[in-house]
Amino acid sequence: MASITIRNLDDEVKTRLRVRAAEHHRSMEEEVRIILRDAVTDRRGPRDLAAFTRQCFASLGGVELELPPRGPMREPPDFS
């Protein structure tokens, strides 16, 4: 495992960190590890539009759309 040293940490930040660690019944070192782990965890949702749309509207139960009937293809344009 790696180690890091944080220099020039404000006294107020250290005090708040000590209080937060005590509230969670942890050491300051463990509290910092958890904060850093949470900060770099990738919590982004889906990366494609279809998955994002499904996620947004999943609670609504979905929607059934009526598709229009298909017709024959048009003739391509003639540029001659």
Structural commentary:
By secondary structure, the protein is mainly alpha-helical. The protein contains three helices and no strands. It has helices spanning 11-23, 28-40, 49-57. Helix 1 (11-23) crosses helix 2. The radius of gyration is 28 Å and the shape is elongated. The N and C termini lie far apart (72 Å).
Summarize the structure.
This protein is mostly helical. It is built from 3 helices and no strands.
Number of E strands: 0
User: What series of H and E elements makes up the topology?
Assistant: HHH
Rg, alpha carbons: 28 Å
Distance from N terminus to C terminus (CA atoms, Å) equals 72 Å
Low-confidence sequence ranges: none
What proportion strand?
under 5%
Question: Sheet bearing the most strands, described?
Answer: none
Q: Give me the secondary-structure category.
A: mainly alpha
> What is the helix tally?
3
Mean pLDDT: 89
Give the overall silhouette: elongated
Helix content: 40-55%
